[in-house]
Amino acid sequence: MKPDKLADGVYRVSAKVGNRDLFEGIWPIPEGVMLNSYVMKGSEKTVLIDLVKDWDGAAEALDGQLSDLRLGEGEIDYLVINHMEPDHTGSLAAFVKAHPKMEILCSEKAVPLIKHFYKIEKQVRAVKDGEKLELGDKTLQFFMTPNIHWPETMMSYAIEDQILFSCDAFGSFGRYEHCFDDELSEEEEVLLVGETERYYANIVSSFSSFVLRGIDKVGALPIAMVAPSHGIVWRSNPMRIITWYKTLATYMNGPREKEITLVWSSMYGNTAALVPYIVAGSESEGIPVHVLEIPKTHESFVLEKAWRSEGLIIGMPTYEYKMFPPMYHILDILERSHVVGRKAMRFGSFGWSGGAQKQYDAFVASMKWDAVGVVEYQGYPDEEDTRSAYEMAKAMAKSIKNA
Ligand code: FEO
Q1: Is ligand 1 within 6 A of the CB of residue 41?
Q2: What is the CA radius of gyration of the chain?
């Protein structure tokens, strides 16, 4: 890849990571992910904003593009670490060795993290909220935006060019041939929509209150471009991604989309038997239903749909007096990501003894879900169970429609 020019003296240097690994060791990236860093060359000083992890050739790609910009040893004055997570800092120790005179600028909370992760203490300086870094004819300003998506996170802003370097915020999964929003093909646009929603739900959702605070803070700036560390650069319509993130963050406490996510798992087909009736009941009120089978579907995709949906339907049998383990795992993921306050119903079978419902009830209370009801039965569902499942799903869909 070659550097992409954002403005005179401002470049994206980026790497496309493939789909062989999991992001954060948990989330599938079937379409890969971008790791973006940025160069800002002033008339006197040069800064590199964020690094990469040595992952699928990313560190090599970064070095090659810095060479294209003639930025060898002694030619980068500052490295800005907006966020310490290793996808943006994994190559730090090697980079510091190659650029020993460079000063590292970061938030106060990042200083001990740099020490503990990379054993680096020299030439590390904490910057303050609102502090400016003069580069000659260009100025970079720092804004503390904690918990997007670690407590030490900050954003950097190029004052003269009005470019916001937002790191994880406003990012997306996916690899893109083109750098800018106005260059995307129709296919890339489709990819971007799905992979922005999934990235948000997987990586950022539990920090949504901080996202809203961060948007309030930097939203007051004149922004010509949003340049995140994953995904594309928003040049022609930067407000699109800011507004989009605001909507995604608002899903935590609502309002949400008038949709239902039906996530189910079945041992012998007795729980699965009700799925078509529940889908039919929900759809009879015109509410779209996302149907996801566990464990065939990775939790990444469940979280994406659950995050946006007002309604959740959980199909889960009892297993050894408790919730079926693959579904227990899904509920744990929903809890970690703060998928709170939804309307919810459950259906499921048990063999010689129940038990899942008791554990589920405690979970529902802790998540402040509005429990619409349960259809639970021994063995295979009978006609009454089938009718109840249809009617309960229909009533839930109706209440979502009319809310
Ligand atoms: Fe892209 Fe929170 O790291």
Answers
A1: no
A2: 24
Count of residues for the chain?
Answer: 403
Residue with structure tokens 């403005």? 7
What pLDDT digit, counting tens, does each position of 287-345 carry? 999 999 999 999 999 999 999 999 999 999 999 999 999 999 999 999 999 999 999 99
User: How many angstroms separate the alpha carbon of residue 16 from the centre of ligand 1?
Assistant: 15
DSSP state of 3: -
The CA–CA distances, whole Å, from 346 to 212, 266, 273 equal 32, 13, 14
Give percent above pLDDT 90 in the chain.
98
Residues 174, 183, 222, 132: is their CA dihedral positive or negative?
A: positive
Q: Could you tell me if the CB of 195 is within 6 A of ligand 1?
A: no
Residue 88: CA atoms inside 13 Å, Cβ hemisphere, count? 28
Domains and CATH numbers, the chain: 4-250 (3.60.15.10), 260-402 (3.40.50.360)
Tell whether ligand 1 has an atom less than 6 A from the beta carbon of residue 50.
no
Q: Which residue has the tokens 């012998």?
A: 268
Compute the distance from residue 10 Cα to the ligand 1 centre, in Å.
22
Nearest protein Cα to ligand 1, atom 3: 85
Ligand 1 neighbour 87 (Cβ under 6 A):
yes
Query: Cα–Cα distance between 10 and 160 in angstroms, integer?
Result: 11
Q: What are the tokens at 100?
A: 């020993």
Ligand 1, closest atom to CA 167? 1
* Residues 2, 64: Cα–Cα separation, whole Å: 8
Atom in ligand 1 nearest the alpha carbon of residue 229: 1
Q: Which residues contact 356 (CB under 8 A, 6 or more apart)?
A: 316, 317, 318, 319, 322, 323, 324, 348, 350, 376
53 lines ligand 1 (CB under 6 A): no
